[in-house]
Each structure stands twice: as structure tokens, then as C-alpha cells.
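User: I'm curious whether this sequence folds into something compact or stays loose and floppy. Could you predict its structure so I can see for myself?
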Amino acid sequence: MDVLLNARRARYIAQPYFKRRVRGSSTMTGRFGMRNIEGYTAVCTRMRALGEERPEWKAVIGKYLSYTLNDVIWAGHRMSLLEKVETACRFRRLRLGKYVSFRNWAVFWLKKK
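Assistant: Here's the prediction. I'll summarize afterward.
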């Protein structure tokens, strides 16, 4: 994201340049849990800091944080109660909760696995 925001020009090329390898034990295909939350919150905290450093990027970064963190919290409904409490505390401590809608927090806490 840092590279994209710093680019003077960008272009979309409709051709794949990589092939994704799917492994059952990877973070992306395994059970959604604290490992995922730690990764997403680390990236989003850095993105928010970029927005503070570069005010002209703040709006686009805010949109990125909102889309990303809403998806993360929605996916978190599958976590254990202890993981949910830890996630909510982490979001509060890092001040990331403001990017998540009330609806997605409700799904996070109330939807059954």
C-alpha cells in the first residue's frame, strides 16, 4: 500500500503475474483466529500512521481501514469467546474500533459459528 500511495503513476494490466499456492495450514486457509487479528491490526495500525504522516492520503486510507476491518470483524464471528474479548480489547487499545460498523460488531458478538 505504501508503494501504491507513493507511485506517481499506476496502471492496471489484466494479466496474472503470480499463482497462489493454497496450503491447508496457512493463515489464510486455516481457522480464523488471533493470528489473523494480529496480522490485520499490525497492517492497519501502520496504514493509519501513514495517513497521519501524509494528510492528503487520509481519506483513502480511512476507506481502506473501514473496508478491511469490517471484513475482519465479520469473519471473527467464528472465534471463541476468549478470542473475541481479546480482539475487542486490541481494537479498543489500538483505536481501530471506530472503523467498524455497529452491524458488523453485532455479527461478531451474536452470530453463531
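Summary: The two ends are 32 Å apart (CA to CA). The chain has a mean pLDDT of 91.
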